[in-house]
Amino acid sequence: MRTETDRQTRVLGRSGIEVGALGLGCWAIGGEWVTPDGSPLGWGKVDDDESVAAVRRALELGVRFFDTADVYGAGHSERVLGKALAGRWDEAVVATKWGNLFDERTRTMDGRDTSPAYARAALQASLRRLGTDRIDLFQLHIGDTPSDEAAVLREACEGFVAEGLIGAYAWSTDDPERAALFAEGEHCAAVQHACNVLEDAPRMLGLSEERGLLSIIRSPLAMGLLAGRREPGRRAEAGDIRSTPPEWLHWFEEGGVPSAHWARRVEAIREVLTADGRTLAQGAIGWLWGRSARAVPIPGFRTVAQVEENAAALTYGPLRPEQLEEIDGLLV
Ligand SMILES: NC(=O)c1ccc[n+]([C@@H]2O[C@H](COP(=O)([O-])OP(=O)(O)OC[C@H]3O[C@@H](n4cnc5c(N)ncnc54)[C@H](OP(=O)(O)O)[C@@H]3O)[C@@H](O)[C@H]2O)c1
Fold first, then answer.
1. For residues 12 and 16, what is the distance between their CA atoms, to the nearest angstrom?
2. Which burial class, exposed, middle or buried, applies to 111 when counting CB atoms under 10 A from its CB (0-12, 13-18, 19+)?
3. Nearest protein CA to atom 16 of ligand 1, as residue
4. Which residue ranges traverse the bilayer (predicted)?
5. Is the pLDDT confidence value at 196 over 60?
6. Domains of the chain
7. Which residues have any ligand 1 atom within 6 Å of their CB?
């Protein structure tokens, strides 16, 4: 019989590294960073002391997996995470990403580099910023890297595993064919992809099942829309990517106001998600666990309170199959 503990266990492939069913996303705690034309790529201002306290609170609550990227806050997210984990690395599992070029001084993202030489340089820089000598999961951040280049990077990652610099590697991509190409590598342990109760990702979840990967689930709360604090009419602050949403960010409109279409869909399923006494965010996380035993949602956070609420989703576990069916019926 499967116990609650089994259901909350997730392992990064051959590395044997145990991540747990819930991680935390460290994009927002990077603070402000921009494109060369000044458009926001961060989530507005953050309080680093609160971010450090939130990471440490997560560890106390048994959440040990943290997903960051070198480019979040142009290096700042890795530095803050490293500060929070100093002296506590044995309690944590850390994933970072590489592939984007950025200037730490101006906090600007200014290109990409998918060469193996840059992968090594980026890995060394991430190790320095985090303050550690090994990264558990190293992820390619460029989702549309051509297959021939990706095959070379996969072999470079195998080399980093052999050198003991990383435990395992993954690709952050929403393309199952690309993910399958990385999955050919012996130490490829996961794929990071989008999925949430508003927008399912059956092909990606199917691929993880087939290839024995973990699905590290980004934007599990639809960037806050599924956390209940983004009520219709509420505007995002300047400096928050939701305030001037890029083309791919369809959950929000100019000014960071939730899109009426998506807000209506959230309302349609709110009652099912919040049954059993869950908050909306806890219900959205429970839906992902109900969808796949390989799903590891990594909700973003900025405060201790958000971490506490999201970690408490673990006490409720997955939504039941009949609740998933009911949601399917409501979202047709
Ligand atoms: N290409 C990639 O590889 C990629 C792309 C996107 C994301 N990611 C990763 O996935 C992680 C998660 O995705 P995401 O940050 O895009 O979005 P998300 O997890 O869907 O939403 C996170 C946001 O929701 C709000 N929130 C979280 N918990 C809450 C709670 N309990 N109550 C109220 N509000 C709450 C917070 O924003 P406010 O407080 O500001 O509302 C938080 O920053 C990222 O941090 C990053 O690590 C990776």
1. 6
2. exposed
3. 219
4. none
5. yes
6. 4-228+289-317 (3.20.20.100)
7. 25-28, 43, 67, 97, 141, 172, 192, 218-224, 227, 229, 281, 298-302, 306, 309-310
